[in-house]
């Protein structure tokens, strides 16, 4: 267990969370994220997370009773710290920038491992489906907003699926790089199918 960090700590009198709990949660989620990136879902165990974070297993179990709890917290951290380019108002340029960021995250292995775990366990546990919804909402939200600013509502979902799906298939299934040339071509092809719907 980390020095000076008890396994449980009460809230302060003012109602704020004890700093020791904040530190414990941060350390454990950081350790989980590192494991998830390096080894995928199978590598995330309470014992290994506790060892890496420097806390007892009892502490980890107290805050995250299941492995899925740990993974959900990690995905939340990854989503909340992900950087998305600031939209410029240029639909084509903004989509290329967003997809370039997605391709980089997939190539680095972080998202690829998370998606792999979700696909393997989809439909087996409501918690897994919740992680999937969280990842889609947080990860695709900015791109959906970009599309919504230029396309009618009924065209957004299809364009979003084509764009994200193209990059996911390229990297995750074809094992090929989604470089700028590929992403630019993909964006141009998708926009060509929606050109008559786009708003200036």
**Overall geometry:** elongated
Rg result:
20 Å
Q: What fraction strand?
A: under 5%
Percent helix among the residues? Answer: 55-70%
Topology, number of strands:
0
What do the pLDDT scores average to? 85
Pfam families: TetR_C_11, TetR_N
DNA-binding region: 45-64
Region (Disordered): 1-20
Domain HTH tetR-type: 22-82
Your description of this structure?
The chain has 200 residues and is mainly α. It has two domains: 19-77, Arc Repressor Mutant, subunit A (Orthogonal Bundle); 85-194, Orthogonal Bundle (Tetracycline Repressor, domain 2), CATH 1.10.357.10. The protein is built from nine helices and no strands. The longest helix has 23 residues, at 126-148.
Which descriptors would you attach to this protein?
mainly alpha, Tetracycline Repressor, domain 2, 2 domains, 70% helix, elongated, disordered N terminus, TetR_C, TetR/AcrR family transcriptional regulator, transcription regulation
Concise structural overview:
With 200 residues, the protein is mostly helical. It has helices at residues 19-39, 46-53, 57-63, 67-81, 91-107, 110-121, 126-148, 153-173, 180-194.
